[in-house]
Specification:
- Helices cover 39% and strands 38% of the residues.
- The chain contains three helices and six strands, in the order H-H-H-E-E-E-E-E-E.
- It has helices at residues 2-33, 35-43, 54-65; strands at 68-70, 73-77, 83-88, 91-96, 100-114, 117-132.
- Strands 1, 2, 3, 4, 5 and 6 form a six-stranded antiparallel β-sheet that branches.
Length: 136
């Protein structure tokens, strides 16, 4: 029983790290694809969250992570169709104070199974940040 709890905890920690890595990868890709628009927006003094096209980012994230949207959540399922984890709609934005600082905030839900029976769902609030600085 203790081993099962430990394996479940380790699996949940792995899911948190995996989602953070995927969110950051897609965020970096988004910045690369939209660098000119983001730069022009900052140059003109628009340093608020409205400068980020969250629909485009979420579409890229859904494609990259193979999420299935259902209601207000984005689900990731295993090969058997069982939900591995799901997230809320990510909040995307940026601010600029001497550097470009982007963030993505979301809530991660990890179902906890014991003997293929859903016991509970862990709820984890996550914020991923990406700081980009001018090098010269």
């Amino acid at each position: 029983m203790i081993l099962s709890v430990f394996v479940t905890f380790a699996g949940a920690v792995n899911v948190v790290r995996l989602t953070q890595r995927n969110i950051k990868t897609v965020l970096e890709s988004y910045v690369t694809k939209n660098s000119i628009e983001i730069y022009n927006s900052i140059k003109q003094g628009n340093n608020n969250a409205a400068g980020i096209n969250s629909e485009e980012y979420i579409s890229d994230l859904t494609d990259f992570c193979t999420f299935v949207k259902s209601g207000a959540f984005y689900y990731h399922k295993d090969a058997n169709g069982r939900t591995e984890y799901y997230i809320t709609r990510p909040t995307v934005g940026f601010t600029e104070t001497g550097k470009l600082r982007l963030y993505v905030s979301y809530t991660l839900y990890v179902p906890i199974y014991f003997d293929n029976v859903l016991i509970s769902t862990a709820r984890i609030l996550i914020s991923v940040k990406l700081d980009l600085e001018e090098k010269f």
